[in-house]
Specification:
Elements: H1 3-15, E1 24-27, E2 44-47, E3 53-56, E4 62-66, E5 77-81, E6 89-90, H2 92-104, E7 108-113, H3 128-142, E8 154-159, H4 161-171, E9 191-194, H5 207-214, H6 220-225, E10 239-244, H7 253-264, E11 269-274, H8 292-302
Parallel strand pairs: 5-7, 5-8, 8-9, 9-10, 10-11
Antiparallel strand pairs: 1-4, 2-3, 3-6, 4-7
Helix pairs in contact: 3-4
Protein name: Alpha/beta hydrolase
Pfam family, one: BD-FAE
GO molecular function: hydrolase activity
């Protein structure tokens, strides 16, 4: 065998990661999907020039599982809700990439492909995302033994509109939506809210998110009910928030008012504000050498969620 051929094989072997395994995908529901109706709506996936992936028109919601390397898992899990204005899902930069970073902390991650509000495929589009987020928390708790998870250490993370969904689930768990909720708790153990849409008030709203979820003419009652800063209670889970001051898409005061509500209700919360970074920076705010994931690791460690 020629030496160059052997060297080529060795180089190829070195280039292949050791931990290569297909990610498992779990359907969110078995049987009929609640709040759904027959329609011509079909899921679409768009790959951007930079390699990013955007998914729209979700009909079959699911969870993609990211398991830490063997021997490193600590029993904590996070369900990740990507953003996209309730119109699409930035499933890679605010989903899969973040899941892999959480795996490095020993945290098992589940990326939620949730249904986006759609009058054609849903009888009530204003509850479909929450139904899916609550079902995701149930499903991960049901699967806790399979993945060696502590069912009391399952958190919820969301980016932008996914942050609205995570905060919504983190404040509305006492009365789960849907006709026949199962007995598992839908309260997250903690919340991680990344440049989140929080308020639907006229002064703080992200217009696209509010319009897509509630339509162009929501009632004052709807605006109040879907403004998560008004729904915080003493039972709201501990919360970690990150936002950039120069965010022109979702005003930074969204995070600030949620933090202030946590403060008023005695909910432990940690807020990190960067002067720059804009909106949608995902894992890396390029305007700073600081990594928010390092701050997140410290916060989770301080709360005991990284202990085995």
């Amino acid at each position: 065998m020629k030496k160059s051929f052997v060297l080529g094989l060795l180089a190829l072997a070195a280039a292949v990661p050791v931990h290569v395994h297909a990610q498992q995908t779990l359907p969110l529901y078995t049987g009929t999907i609640p709040d759904s109706k027959p329609s011509a709506v079909q899921e679409t996936s768009l790959t951007l020039a930079n390699g990013g992936v955007r998914i729209s028109n979700v009909v079959q919601p699911n969870l993609t599982v990211f398991v830490p390397p063997a021997g490193t898992a600590n029993g904590t899990a996070v369900v990740i809700c990507p953003g996209g204005g309730y119109a699409r899902l930035s499933i890679d930069s605010e989903g899969y990439d973040v899941a892999k970073r959480l795996n490095e902390m020993g945290v098992t991650a589940f990326v939620l492909k949730y249904r986006l509000p759609n009058d054609q495929s849903q009888p009530d589009k204003s509850i479909a995302p929450l139904l899916d987020a609550q079902q995701a928390l149930r499903l991960v708790r049901q699967q806790a033994a399979k993945y060696s998870l502590n069912p009391e250490r399952i958190g919820l993370m969301g980016f932008s509109a996914g942050g609205h969904l995570a905060a919504w689930a983190g404040t509305q768990f006492a009365k789960p939506v849907g006709d026949k909720p199962s007995p598992e708790s839908v309260r997250p153990a903690f919340l991680v809210l990344m440049y989140p849409v929080i308020s639907f008030s006229d002064t703080l709203k992200h217009g696209g998110s509010r319009d897509n979820l509630l339509g162009k003419t929501p009632t004052p009652e709807q605006i109040r009910r879907y403004s998560n800063e008004l729904q915080v209670s003493a039972q709201t889970p501990p919360t970690f928030l990150v936002h950039a001051q120069d965010d022109k898409t979702v005003p930074v005061n969204n995070s600030i008012v949620f933090y202030q509500a946590c403060l008023r209700h005695g909910v432990p919360a940690e807020l990190h504000l960067y002067p720059k970074g804009g909106h949608g920076f995902g894992l890396n705010n390029k305007t700073t050498k600081d990594l928010w994931t390092d701050r997140l690791r410290n916060w989770m460690d301080a709360n005991g969620w990284l202990n085995k």
